Amino acid sequence: MDLSFIQKLFEKKKPKLHMLKWGLPEQRLVAEVKDADKTVYALKKNKAKFVSGGEFIDRIHAKQLGETAFTYFIVRTEKKTENETILFDGYMAQEEEQLNLQLQNSYSIEEDLDNLGYAEAVNREVIEWRFNYSLIKASVFEIDGFGSFIEIAIPKTKLVRTRENQEKQAFELLEKIGIKKEEAIPTDVITLQLVQSMQEKK
Per residue in 58-78, pLDDT tens? Predict the structure, then answer.
């Protein structure tokens, strides 16, 4: 998949987002990988600690904040158990949206999301592997019909020195598994998928 156009979209301009003045916000990096299994093996070989994973069916509901910025809810069904959960990700807005949902069934959940301005944007089947690597988190995604990716999450911090060390660790880890610094796009995998979907519809 040629992601060069999308990469330029993220580099061109970053949306103005609400950031807490007393800290540096969470930051994420994404790079495409050729083989998810080999990437998982490389992470384990480089002492990344596996913490969770699984096979899921996701219905992603998104609210657009800017050209390449979203908050979203994932209505997630685990393939093996068919257990359904709802996950929120609003790191781009640097805020946690409070939602009083009765998690009774997917219909009622999605009806509430629609009322809050979250439109169903992407449905996908995904295999995930999640790791901790020192101060950062690394996740590998194999998404049916879209591709395989690694996502690095650099946590928010109040210390500039800590952020510099976290970024250094992130790029060192990518380099260890064969990914160049310039191949990393400053976004998350779901946003990359949403932007790609929007570009295809134009």
Answer: 999 999 988 888 999 999 999
Phi-psi region for residue 145, left (φ > 0), alpha (ψ -120 to 50) or beta? left
Query: d(Cα 127, Cα 35) in Å, to the nearest integer?
Result: 12
Cα–Cα distances in angstroms (integers) from residue 5 to residues 1, 30, 34, 124, 185, in the given order? 11, 15, 19, 23, 11
Helix or strand (DSSP H, E) at 172 = helix 160-176
Global confidence as pTM: 0.84
Residue type, 146: F
Give the number of other CB atoms < 10 A from CB of residue 72: 24
Contact 131, 150 (CB under 8 A): no
- Show the domains of the chain with their CATH numbers: 4-201 (2.40.320.10)
Residue 11 buriedness (CB in 10 A; 0-12 / 13-18 / 19+): exposed
Which residues make beta-bridge pairs with 53?
Answer: 129
